[in-house]
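Moderator note: this is an archived Q&A kept for reference. The question asked for a predicted structure of one protein chain; the sequence and the answer are reproduced below.
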Amino acid sequence: MAGGVKSFGKFLQDVVREMKRVSWPTRKELTRYTWIVIGTVFFISVFFAIVDLGISSLVRAILG
């Protein structure tokens, strides 16, 4: 049990050490990347909505 606690403590020390090495984005970069992700999700959602509407209409025409 004690070995598990020691290794967990070492793990946390390693996490802190690695987090200090991380190159964090600036606020401007983070805002820009966030808008890019939101825009991409929006356009992909619209694309799939249009494809779904087209496939639904095609299936209705075939079965109808």
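Archived answer notes: Residues 24-64 form one domain.
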